[in-house]
Design a protein that fits this description.
Number of domains: 1
CATH topology: ph1033 like fold
CATH architecture: Roll
Strand content: 25-35%
Number of strands: 6
CATH class: Alpha Beta
Helix content: 10-25%
CATH superfamily: ph1033 like domains
Largest sheet: 6 strands, mixed
DNA sequence: GCCAACGTTGGC
DNA sequence: GCCAACGTTGGC
């Protein structure tokens, strides 16, 4: 069973544009220094899909990504506690889904994004995934 | 820019 | 092992 995730990034640090420019090679999702977020990355499998969310500037889901390398040591630190996955851009959200719209949708009331806004890598339930894809104008759930 | 929420650190 | 102090994130 394919799990779904959400990756949060400040566009001033790492934007969807930059992610897309990396193409199929993808990019290491490094710099995470939070155990919950790391544990979520450890649980990811090759091919799992996720949302790419712009925090602070934008506050909206702008794209779909795919896990292209499972958890491995974070190259930005020598501390062996920190691991990360690699992700690659798969598709744009035809209509970015804003945090505001998510908060207004009762079906999404239990989303981690709503209830634990500080967690930077988080799981997304299958029904939440489908609902947001629908809101984002994707005619097929990827 | 403020501040609430949360996570981490370190003294005891 | 508890908890106060501190630092960071991110919405507003």
């Amino acid at each position: 069973m394919m799990a779904h995730w959400l990756f949060k990034s400040e566009p001033s640090t790492w934007s969807w544009q930059q992610q897309k420019q990396r193409g199929a090679a993808g990019e290491e999702w490094d710099g995470v220094r939070n155990y919950q977020a790391r544990n979520n990355m450890r649980a990811m499998k090759q091919g799992d899909r996720g949302f790419f969310y712009h925090s602070q500037d934008g506050k909206e889901i702008v794209g779909i990504v795919e896990v292209c390398a499972e958890a491995h040591p974070d190259s930005t630190t020598d501390d062996p506690r920190w691991e990360c996955v690699d992700i690659r851009a798969v598709a744009d959200m035809p209509k970015p889904v804003t945090l505001e719209a998510i908060k207004q949708n009762p079906k999404l009331a239990d989303m981690v994004l709503v209830n634990n806004s500080r967690l930077s890598v988080q799981p997304v339930a299958d029904d939440e995934w489908a609902e947001i894809c629908r809101m984002g104008g994707l005619d097929r759930v990827p």
